[in-house]
Amino acid sequence: MASASSSRAGVALPFEKSQLTLKVVSAKPKVHNRQPRINSYVEVAVDGLPSETKKTGKRIGSSELLWNEIIILNVTAQSHLDLKVWSCHTLRNELLGTASVNLSNVL
Fold it and tell me: What is the pLDDT of residues 28-73, one digit of tens each?
């Protein structure tokens, strides 16, 4: 679950960059056999650009996937957001779930 707001008033041009304030709240992955306490974080990518990929802080040993963190992103009205929820492990991280949002459908 996430909420978002744009810092620019009025209607933005399709390729004009503006800041998007995204609040990453929580996740409910469909994985039923996960450990009762996991270390997790969320990764948000704008248009697949590494320079516009941000992560929440890691939640250590939590039984709930809850972050309540704000991430500031530079987007256009046509941007596409990819959100990934990861479980942190010693050798490699495990993808728990994904979501995608086309901002043209939301803004």
Answer: 866 556 567 788 999 999 999 999 999 999 988 777 889 999 999 9
Three-class DSSP category at 105:
helix
Q: Which CATH architecture has domain 19-27+36-105?
A: Sandwich (2.60)
What is the C-alpha to C-alpha distance for residues 44 and 31, in angstroms, rounded to an integer?
20
Prediction pTM value: 0.79
